[in-house]
Specification:
- It is built from eight helices and eleven strands.
- The protein is an alpha/beta fold and about 220 residues long.
- The protein folds into two domains: about 130 residues, 3-Layer(aba) Sandwich (Rossmann fold); about 90 residues, Orthogonal Bundle (Arc Repressor Mutant, subunit A).
- Helix 6 packs across helix 8.
- It is elongated and about 70 Å long.
Length: about 220
């Protein structure tokens, strides 16, 4: 199966050169010289990797990197003529997997692509082994549901992790409050109800056909995975 790559690069001549070269290795590249069209395509289609220029018309590539990483774990290689080390550091901090300064040989880009994809595959395989339902990934300190990481606040994470560790058991409200250092002690009881409601909403987004957290009247809550 071909590897599908999206490239956002406004230098059309360079983009064509790279597309033609990578095609020899069964890498299918779709380029967008308009960053807004590129982002739209990312939201609509499935790609294996993103090659991202930084100096784009109307939108800085670092902003794209930040936006993409907030929504997806797709591997990102920044391909840029900007040589400022701060740009490189910022790009990596925002979630890019590699930074390739221009000019470069197409074969180096190919090598970087394959290296990034190998690392991503190892990480994905590890995660998929873990995430059969609702599971805590201790290595990455994340909770996954149906192979997708849940976006949780610190308090939500602490409470859900405690419930997950005591799966199937009825947990008292006081125990749950004590499991989180992030809950406000003065209004902890009311805060817990709000927090549980938020967790339920986030779980429902990833699994619409299953209820995980049950209220036990007068006692507390029980999690069933």
């Amino acid at each position: 199966m071909s590897i599908k790559i999206i490239m956002i690069e406004d230098d059309c001549e360079l983009a064509q050169l790279l597309c033609d070269f990578l095609k020899k290795y069964d890498l299918v590249v779709e380029n967008f010289d308009d960053p807004f069209l590129g982002i739209s395509s990312l939201n609509l289609k499935d790609y294996d990797l993103l090659i991202l220029d930084l100096s784009l018309p109307g939108l800085d590539g670092l902003e794209i990197c930040k936006e993409v990483r907030q929504k997806s774990d797709i591997p990102i290689i920044i391909s840029s003529a900007r040589s400022d080390v701060d740009d490189k550091i910022k790009g990596l901090e925002l979630g890019a997997d590699d930074y390739l300064p221009k000019p470069y040989e197409p074969k180096e880009l190919y090598a970087r692509i394959m290296s990034v994809l190998r690392r991503y595959k190892k990480k994905t395989e590890y995660t998929l082994k873990l995430n059969k339902g609702l599971v805590y990934d201790e290595q990455n300190c994340k909770i996954y549901l149906n192979n997708k990481p849940l976006e949780l606040t610190r308090a939500e994470f602490e409470v859900l992790l405690h419930m997950l560790k005591k799966e199937g058991c009825v947990i008292s409200r006081s125990e749950l409050i004590g499991s989180s250092q992030s809950l406000n002690e003065e209004s902890a009881s009311r805060s817990l109800d709000v927090l549980i409601s938020r967790i339920r909403t986030k779980l429902a987004k990833n699994s619409k056909n299953k209820r995980f957290i049950y209220s036990i009247r007068g006692v507390g809550y029980r999690l069933e995975n």
